[in-house]
Specification:
Number of helices of chain A: 13
Largest interface: A-B, 49 and 49 residues
CATH topology of the largest domain in chain A: BirA Bifunctional Protein, domain 2
Oligomer: homodimer
CATH architecture of the largest domain in chain A: 2-Layer Sandwich
Number of domains of chain A: 3
Radius of gyration of chain A: 29 Å
Number of strands of chain A: 31
Chain lengths: ~575, ~575
Amino acid sequence: MYMSKMFVPTLRESPNDAEIASHKLMIRAGLVRNLVSGVYNYLPLGIRVLEKIKTIIREELDKKSAQEILCSALQPKELWEESGRWSDYGQEMIRLKDRNDREFCLGPTHEEIFTNIVKKEITSYRQLPINLYQIQSKYRDERRPRFGLLRTREFIMKDAYSFDKDELGLDKSYKDMYDAYSKVFDRCELDWKAVLADTGAVGGTGSHQFMAISEVGESDILYCMECNYAADREKADFMLDKTSAGEQQNPYEKIYTPNNTTIEEISNLLGEPYYKFAKSLVFKVKDKIILALIRGDREVNIIKLCNAIGTIEEYVQMATEEDIRRIGSEPGYIGPVGLKNVEILVDRELEYLKNFYTGGNEKDYHLKNVNYGRDFTGKIVELANASAGDKCPKCGKPMKMEKGIEVGQVFKLGTKYSKPMECNYLDENGASKPMVMGCYGIGVTRTLSAIIEQHHDENGIVWPISVAPYHVIIVPVNVKDETQFNKAKEIYEMLKQNGIEVILDDRDERAGVKFKDADLIGIPMRITVGKKIGEEIVEFKRRKEGSIEEIYIDSVLMHVKKCVSQ
Amino acid sequence: MYMSKMFVPTLRESPNDAEIASHKLMIRAGLVRNLVSGVYNYLPLGIRVLEKIKTIIREELDKKSAQEILCSALQPKELWEESGRWSDYGQEMIRLKDRNDREFCLGPTHEEIFTNIVKKEITSYRQLPINLYQIQSKYRDERRPRFGLLRTREFIMKDAYSFDKDELGLDKSYKDMYDAYSKVFDRCELDWKAVLADTGAVGGTGSHQFMAISEVGESDILYCMECNYAADREKADFMLDKTSAGEQQNPYEKIYTPNNTTIEEISNLLGEPYYKFAKSLVFKVKDKIILALIRGDREVNIIKLCNAIGTIEEYVQMATEEDIRRIGSEPGYIGPVGLKNVEILVDRELEYLKNFYTGGNEKDYHLKNVNYGRDFTGKIVELANASAGDKCPKCGKPMKMEKGIEVGQVFKLGTKYSKPMECNYLDENGASKPMVMGCYGIGVTRTLSAIIEQHHDENGIVWPISVAPYHVIIVPVNVKDETQFNKAKEIYEMLKQNGIEVILDDRDERAGVKFKDADLIGIPMRITVGKKIGEEIVEFKRRKEGSIEEIYIDSVLMHVKKCVSQ
């Protein structure tokens, strides 16, 4: 297309609220525009990249015999009541009523709808397995939309759902999708890792997240260089420290610790390391008070806490000072010994820690030589976050930590939806059984962001050829020079006829302005038609390498094709 | 793809609520499934047809330099307040609040959003004209969803918006879109007519609808075979009957007409034709009472009535008997003479009708020899529907009437949105002017329905090749016969490699069942591999013509290609 006709509103400056590179560059390169918080409009260049990502996804999924369908965004309340999620899903779900006061939501996800469709149409084992997917807008009323397309309220997602006879079938479907996703993210030229993940609100028996490695990612990934173990921090396990497990239990003592309430203060006061303390955190979950006890040097993982008590993050609040006094304790001096009317969750590591310190539930006092089982009891659960340096749960080597953008996730749902929604089939013996399901998501708009995060430099986006909005941009240095302009048009037509996606920058602007725009919008190849056109020579620049070479016009197609086929 | 793996749930019976062929066949052929009233899910065959229609639309629009973007379905109230439509749009608009109680709607259309985008990015005459479009789900909470995909609450629409410097530019953009639409509907093999249309709630200065001719269409089209005048009945004009215009006005009389209240009764009683009467209809529009007076043989066109008083259909109700008494009249005997507290709208034809009958506003009495101007006054407006046989407003020949499905509409919006929303540009002299807009819609899911309405027979759908979900279906008569099945697979692979979209019906079913399904889902070509395979002979059936011929395997590709290229 001719640049003068294209709707590509490039900007010199980034918007004030843009904190990360992809957000800044998507605005500056005219890919998207913000409408209201967390809601975007996609402009022509943005659409072209999205369509390329979608095509890659479709090709890889179709290879695995997945079939595309398209479901409505409007979903009736009744289906979500069947699955039990209407009340579970909190404020993130956008709800509405129609003119007859019937309740609907705007689909944040589609397990209920797909299960409902398959339940009605598939009755026999002979029709299984089946894998259906769609690419569609999803709606989640995020508390704090941010980071451009990384956290929005309306976004494009590819979601797939597999239906199998049994777990063995699910394993195969799951692996198929895992492999397809690996290909998709490879083809998008992302540096990614698949990591063990928590199943969260979706539920099920197992999950992996596909993480695009990036400093701006909101997820922490723990991984082992030695054995390839990798997990999202929400899920990551680690080898417990059992160093003190064999020690003798000493009699416990009350110690006077006036005005020393934080782990840092008390550790300084007593000259003992953080890991000799058990830290108490008090939460309120729907009017119930919960004390979570973990080693002083660790952090509570809120997802693990939720899993331990069967709730979701939205319902978990920190307790108030009043709450703490009501359970017979004292803010700053909380501990598990002697407390009443409270559920105590004990991180599993404390079972092996001997003679630790805790708060004394009394102003200015702590306890020394506290031991689980002898001095207090509680439910042993997994609460602590893994951290860089913790030992790999598989091989014991220290793990590393990196940040990632979650671009995809695959889940083994099992019968979580098929059982309550009665999505059954008749097996070979005529017995009715629930189908065994998997579900698989790719954040299409997130993938777009992640690609830019990994493929940009100080001058703009550097599109991988596989998803570039156009392959080539032709820049005549001076459009008023007829020879230059005519030759540029000739090359443009020649490339177009050879199936190359090409822009001709026919604007009457200084060459510098046009070069800057070409770099900003990240077109992989630039052909500059300038003064040497009389000698049939043009400049060939590759955006990624930054290399510029002079080539003869009759070799342009060869150079371009070589780059496209890479 | 292999039929055994495909999710194509065909049905022998139509659902009970399906009244029209496209609805029945879309369900029976497994293209769509209903979720709740007016909300559908599209299954794999449906998606494939939709994608083909979308591709045709994109190709034709791109040729006119329109550029694809994608806007959010979530639209903030504020933009609709700028245009003044937030309060105008009635219950059809689906409204919702986010977690911060901010109000949104689900876009029923996108004039506001596109105007807002362009207003922010385009500032100079040098950047005009521009034409942007999207293909996206729209939401309208229809009072009575019905007819399958013809009237739904969530549907796929292509909407385009053009921005020009002036009316001349708009004329060009409008013509471009008109031409593109003509190509689109031709390529979809629709029998269609472009007709003059009312601009309705969208507003503007001119409009055409693209109507697919069909018995089940909800629109009436008036057209002239002589001069090609064609218009939607809501808009259609006709030459007024001025036969009695020159008659002398007789003195008016009160006549006794006990128990004769309808036009039919009074016409019988007096032995006078319907057209000698003026019929009074009383409406209530937001507490205001309106009397509409038209000739006895005509019907009030509610759109023309709305246009005459500047309101929308949703606010127009029939008055109650009580309302009628309150304005000093009597149900069954209403007339314009002597009424108070009522706005009288007089159809323009009555200006030329002399000595007509009306109700006497008194039980059991009518008036004779009533004349407009002498006996009563009122606002002369256009109220009457045109009907078959009325004279063409251009050439005076009698018009015909047909029914059509509205598949597209183009509007000259002028400055209806750009003025209130301040979507301005600087002209050559630096003066700020509002852009002159057009908007252009195609109902993608409606087009799908219309194609089926026009292309089906008693056995199922008969897809035009341009939008068929697959080109060819290969049916081995007996899949257990290895020779048949292997040859079928060979042909399948050969066609696939040649870019033909092909299904292999590998199901272990009777041939009759497979033939029935092939007909039902409407694949344009069927290749049957049966007993003559030993002689290298297969059966080649064309769905549309119903013709079956025996051909040699080595001529299959030629036959198929010939049909695809037609």
